Amino acid sequence: QVQLVESGGGSVQAGGSLRLPCTASEYTISTYCMGWFRQSPGKEREGVAVIDSEGRTTYADSVKGRITISRDNAKNTLYLQMNRLKPEDTAIYYCAAGHYSGIDCNAGANFAYWGQGTQIAVSS
């Protein structure tokens, strides 16, 4: 079973940047569809960004141009680089992995493995 551990969360002022790593243990992530999701209090979980095993990426409209998802298969790590952060980015961020490829690798997929989440708080 893939175990995912996020880190890098914290508090930042609006306009600042953060990078979230998500490291997988036990199994290589190279063949997995990987994604970042977030959930704010009182809101449903939403997909932020997804990357397939070939490196193709998709983003939520609310983060396009500010956030970049990437993966380093040699380090078994997924990243989320967040720039020009806004207060509305405040949420718990989760990474996820699933056995999907091509167009099936998207934020609506039923990801099988999830991390425990890391909190991001953006102040104005």
- In round numbers, the mean pLDDT is 95
Head-to-tail CA distance between termini? 40 Å
Number of strands: 11
Shape: globular
Residues in helix, %: under 10%
Helix count, per DSSP? 0
Q: What is the ordering of alpha helices and beta strands?
A: EEEEEEEEEEE
What composes the largest sheet? Answer: 7 strands, mixed
The unreliable regions are none
Secondary-structure content class: mainly beta
Question: Would you write up a description of this structure?
Answer:
Helices cover 0% and strands 48% of the residues. The model has no long low-confidence stretch (mean pLDDT 95). The chain has 124 residues and is an all-beta fold. Strands 2, 4, 5, 6, 9, 10 and 11 form a 7-stranded mixed sheet that branches. Strands 1-3-8-7 form a 4-stranded antiparallel sheet, with no helix packed on it.
Write the layout of secondary structure elements.
Layout: E1 3-6, E2 10-13, E3 18-25, E4 33-39, E5 46-51, E6 57-59, E7 67-72, E8 77-82, E9 91-98, E10 113-114, E11 118-123
Parallel strand pairs: 2-11
Antiparallel strand pairs: 1-3, 3-8, 4-5, 4-9, 5-6, 7-8, 9-10, 9-11
Structural features:
mainly beta; 7-stranded mixed beta sheet; 11 strands; 124 residues; 4-stranded antiparallel beta sheet
Task: Give a short overview.
With 124 residues, this protein is mainly beta.
